[in-house]
Structure formats: structure tokens, C-alpha cells
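User: Structure please.
Assistant: Input sequence and predicted structure:
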Amino acid sequence: MPNFILIGMPGSGKSTFGKIVADSMHYAFLDTDDMIMDTYHRDLMHLIDQYGVEGFITLESEILRQIQTKNTIIATGGSAIYSDTAMQHLKQIGKVVYLKKTLPEIAEQVGDLVTRGVICRCGHTLPEIYQERCPLYEQFADIIVPLNGYCVAEAAKIVTTAITDSMKK
């Protein structure tokens, strides 16, 4: 069975839904932000401070390109889409699922961009980041799952259904 790679804005539910979906499908779960922090023994905010935005994107890309797994739901960091080579690798090892939410819903979930460890190029605001990233998420996605207005349980069911339906095709 293929891997499913979850992409989307910070606060879109990649980790939350990834764990739920993995459990319901009897898949393993992998959070790439956790992989990065485990590898470098620092939280994302400190890694971004230490390496800078472009340096962090490079180290994130290196981690993503090392993933070799099967039957796994993989939750990526929201900035994974900034590395074309990493995304091409992820597309080779599974199907990419874009968890799409509206900007107001993302803003409600995200909180402080810096302490959350969100890549902010040129001091961009959340709306600017959203506008920059959404076309990239859509470009790389094999499956787009709109999740506007759903509670966690409903959204998890929608994501699971989208993934299981894609396995039948």
C-alpha cells in the first residue's frame, strides 16, 4: 500500500489528522517536523534562527529526501513545498494530500508564527504566506481535501475517506 504525504499550511491539521488517519488505516505515522527536531536536537524556531530561512529549507529538504518507508501517513512541515527536489521524492514514494483550509481558519489555529517555527520569508505576514504557498500546495497535490468548517472528528473522517477512495482508483 502506498504512503500518503500530508501537505498544507501550518494549522491545517497535518499532524492531528495524520495520527488519526494512520490509526484508523493501521498505517505508521511519521511527522517530519519531529524528524528534523530529533536529528538536530533543537526546536524548529531555534533551527530557523540558527540556519536562517534558506538554510532551514535546505536541511528540511535533506531530511525529506531521506524518507524511505511504506504504509505510512507522513505529515510534513508547511514549508516542505519550498523544495522541489524533496517534493518530487515524496511524490515518488506516495500520494500527496493537500489539506486545504481557508485563511481565517488557519489564522485561528496558528498563533504566533515565530514561536510556532513557521518559515517567514522577508517578514511576510500570515496572509502573504498563505497567498504564496497555496498555489504550491495545489501544484504538488495528487489529492486536494477541503476542510473548511469541520470539527476534528468530521475532518479526520473526510481525510480518511479521500485517502481510502484514492486507493480504489
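The chain is about 55% helix and 15% strand.
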